[in-house]
């Protein structure tokens, strides 16, 4: 067994951090940022998310049809967007479509707004239809670790209006699990708590092998000890709420 010490501040770091009106973003949490594309507007994402997004768009031959609209934003940029929208669109519209500064997924470097390529693109609500190249993107997105973050019918849970253009990188297999279970990220964070580490795991089969997902609650103040088998690779992500999501790969189902 390997013993890993998880500092409490690590609950704010990882692909599965929940950022919404109730759970703000910890500024230093985002990782290395990379341009989404080399020959377009300077839009940044966390490095692995950027690489997988590029691979997905290439897979569906989407370079001529899909354009990145907005990726990583600083707190200052989010504040400017919020203030501008209040002036131009009013509070009701802004609260539906613009996250409160300090509580925006865009500050994580894990969220991307995409639009259908056309002459005029709405920055806040870009067109991203269900059919055509955008539909192909949406279908394949979970296999690349992306989810449609604010789906229709889940507005009361996410606190944000339906945004078919906003995608969030959560990683593999979590995106595929969320789609299979029909869960938003808010719901997934709660759902996985039913699988406490060392007692019960959620099993997802991928390419004939099992991926095992479980939850480890963080200590109230002290570091958390994770005892894990060394024989299989694993990842640890904070949930930005109260603990960690442990993902173990490679074991046969």
Verbal overview:
The structure is a single chain. The strands form four sheets. This protein has a four-stranded antiparallel sheet with strand order 4-5-7-6. It has 253 residues and is α+β, with helices and mostly antiparallel strands. Strand 2 (33-35) and strand 3 (44-46) form a beta hairpin. Helix content is 25%, strand content 27%. It has helices at 47-59, 75-89, 91-97, 132-140, 155-158, 174-181, 185-191, and strands spanning 2-6, 33-35, 44-46, 66-70, 111-116, 146-150, 163-169, 202-206, 209-217, 224-228, 234-238, 243-252. The chain has seven helices and twelve strands. Helix 2 (75-89) packs across helix 3.
Q: Which terms would index this structure?
A:
12 strands; four-stranded antiparallel beta sheet; alpha+beta; 27% strand; 253 residues; single chain; 7 helices
